[in-house]
Task: structure prediction
Amino acid sequence: MSADQSAAVVENLELDLLLEGMFRAYGVDARQCHRPVVEQTISEMVRATGVSTVSALLEKALHDRDYGERAASALECCHLSLFAECDFFRGFKERVVPWLRTHPFISIWIAQCGTGAEVYALAILLEEARLYERTRIYATEEKATALAHARAGVASASCLRFSGANYRTCGGTKSLSEYFEDRNGRPVVNSALRRNIIWSEYSLTTGESFNEFNLVLCCNVVRRLTPGLQRRVYKLITESLPVFGLLGLGLEEAPNISPYVYCYKDWDRGIGFHQRVC
Result:
């Protein structure tokens, strides 16, 4: 292993340890955030603090509570990395948006909305397609803390830079910064983009159908469940979709559990969309 490779291994290990330490000490979980955004944020924190290594940054955060809370606040903002899945959002714009145009009113359910990045990204695409005014997005999440962070819509400067590049790749027609406002020195999703989003705490595995939607997005959630819970979730989603409604799943997922396997056909498997047919 070369010296550069060894240094990279050590840096990745230091970063993993810092994220784990911040999660245990302050409850901020940035371990699954978009890695380049996290790396950039930590790099900026190292320079601003004047320490020489990421390990030294963790030591300071653990032994200086005031600094640790500021560092935790900075890491919280790493969650809002918009348009990270460029292929999905480009496909949504090219394939799903024209389909949505055929509906007089659009109702979308984003189940397990997580960081809220997917919610805001879709709202932007619908706004630029001039469909947002007749759209309602229902964003649900089981974890109250995650829902609060998603609803807050606070980003970091690093997030906004990475998101801006991805936004342009996905065919964005404006400057991403137009959808944010400055609040206490941080970019926050503006009220105009929030206006048609309804946030709710909700469990996919215990909840009941609460509306009918043209489109349900539940990407990379079902495959982590047991077969019994998968069957329950597909039942819930099917009850929430009309015939010809669309279901968006992860690329490695499909509604292939009986009897729901017969309710859907592949609509655009390349971006994970299936259509209810019965």
User: Anything to note?
Assistant: The chain has two domains: 3-79, 86-276. Residues 3-79 form one domain. The mean pLDDT is 91. The chain has ten helices and nine strands.
